[in-house]
Amino acid sequence: MQQQEIVTAVRAFLRENFLVDDEAGLGEDTSFMQTHTLDSTGFVELIGFVEETFGLEVRDEEMLPENFDSLANIAHYVARKHEPATAR
User: Fold this and answer.
1) For residue 1, is pLDDT > 80?
2) What CA–CA distances, in Å, run from 68 to 10, 26, 46, 50, 86?
């Protein structure tokens, strides 16, 4: 799956479930924490969405801002998780 497809899917999820206004400047690198886009419950819902939509399991130690604090971080994380083990 291409990273842009991941960004598009996550952006749609945020728009539908958290009434995030893309026009207000939710860029790919915009921090969800700094802009108060999501609270702790929102991150749990987001992680569940990522697991279900992209067919992967997020381990506890992977629940970090480096992986889930922006559209770009999520796209990179999902892409890494889908890489063959030998490519990591």
Assistant:
1) no
2) 11, 14, 8, 10, 24
Amino acid at 80: R
Is residue 88 scored above 80 in pLDDT?
no
Express each pLDDT in 26-75 by its tens digit. 889 999 999 888 999 999 999 999 999 999 999 999 999 999 999 999 99
Alpha-carbon distance of 83 to 24, in angstroms, equals: 33
Count of alpha carbons within 13 angstroms of residue 11, beta-carbon side: 19
